[in-house]
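Schema walk-through. Below, the input block comes first and the output block second. Nothing else is stored per chain. Lengths vary across the set, and this one has 183 residues.
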Amino acid sequence: MSIYHMINWFFLFSFLGYLLECVVLSYEYKVLVINRGFVHGPFCIIYGFGALGACILLQPFTGNPVKLYFATVIMATSMELITARLMIRLFGSFWWDYSHKMLNYKGIICLQSSVAWGFLGIFFFWFLNGFVHRMVGYVPEGYEKWTAMTLLTSYLLDFAYSVYVQLHKDDDEGPMIGRLKVN
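--- output ---
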C-alpha cells in the first residue's frame, strides 16, 4: 500500500467523521449543522487519526469483540481528552460540549460518547475500514498521488488559516460548536 493511498484513506475517514459530526449535532441541537470541523473544509481529522490509531493499536483485539470494544472506548476517549486539552491550551476552548450529558468530565468527555466510540470501533474493523480501503482503491493509479497531495496541501493551508483566525478572534463571541454559535 502506497503512502498516497494512506493519505487518501486518512482524508476519507476525516470526511466521514465530519459527516457523522454534522448529522449527530444537527439531530441533537435540532438545527442544521453544516460545518463541524475546526477548519473550513469538510474534514474532522481526529477521525483520520482515530482510524490510524485503531489500525496501529487495536489490531491485536480484533478477534475478541469485547476486548476490541473496551480498547476502543479507552483509545477514543483518551484521544478526545488529549485533543480537548490541546485545543484549550492553544485556543482557550474546544469544539464540543458534553456538559449537558450525564457522567461527563468538564464537558470534554462523557459516558454516552465513550459507549458510542466502542461500538464505532467494532463497526470500523468489521466493515468500515475495508469499505474505505476499497473506495480509495477506486482512485486511478495515475491520480492517487495528485489526489493525496491536493488534499494534504489544501488541508494544511486551511488549517494554517483556521489557526490564524482562532488566535485573532474576539473572546466575547460565546461558545462554539464547530462554527455554530450556541447560547
